[in-house]
Amino acid sequence: MTWVPPAYRQPGRPWPPGGTPGRPPRSKWWLPVAGSIGTALAVVAAYFLTIVAAFLTTVCNDPPSVINAHRNSLRISVIVVWVIAAGVPALVAGLAKVRERATLPWVVAAVAMVGVGLAIALTIRPSTWCLF
Questions:
Q1: Smallest Cα–Cα separation from 113: which of 47, 35, 37?
Q2: Sign of the four-CA dihedral 85, 89, 94, 98
Q3: CA neighbor of 92 nearest in space, from 23, 40, 26, 25
Q4: Which of residues 122 and 132 earns the better pLDDT score?
Q5: CA 37, 108, 44: angle at the middle one, nearest 5?
Q6: What is the predicted pLDDT for the residue at 131?
Q7: What is the CA 91 to chain-centroid distance, rounded?
Q8: Are 92 and 31 in contact (CB under 8 A)?
Q9: Cβ distance 69 to 41 under 8 Å?
Q10: C-alpha distance from residue 65 to each of 62, 75, 78, 102 (Å)
Q11: Is 100 left (phi over 0), alpha (psi -120 to 50) or beta?
Q12: How much of the chain exceeds pLDDT 70, in percent?
């Protein structure tokens, strides 16, 4: 039997008779894999919806007041899209908390997604993709 320092022992979970824990059961792998795939899909969807929002707030030869109104509308929609997308890793963090798994990577991913959304929203301008 191998001695493991108390700091590295999992509380409340006895080890198998062999003495050391083996490979985690398959049920422990679904959360990080599904969470990573879901977070990646949320980032791609948020990026795509940011492009759609920029296209929908297009300005062509409009006065400055209309351009400012479109800019504010675009900023709000971009922030909303990225905050909703950040809900995916936040949901995974909640599931990880319930299953007693690490939550820090998912919280960091959610905060990073909100930060990216805010950075995009503060620097974005209405596009000038004129179709006519």
A1: 47
A2: positive
A3: 40
A4: 122
A5: 35
A6: 61
A7: 9
A8: yes
A9: no
A10: 8, 15, 20, 48
A11: left
A12: 79
Task: Quote the tokens at residue 121.
Answer: 């929203």
- How many residues does this entry show for the chain? 132
Task: Give the amino acid at 61.
Answer: N
Q: pLDDT-derived band of residue 29, with 50, 70 and 90 as boundaries?
A: confident
Question: What are 127's two structure tokens?
Answer: 């596009």
Q: The whole model's pTM is what?
A: 0.74
Tokens linked to 124: 């974005």
Integer CA distances (angstroms), 89 to 28, 54, 73, in order: 17, 25, 26
Residue 29 in contact with residue 35, Cβ under 8 Å? no
Say how many CA atoms lie within 13 Å of 42 toward its Cβ.
Answer: 26
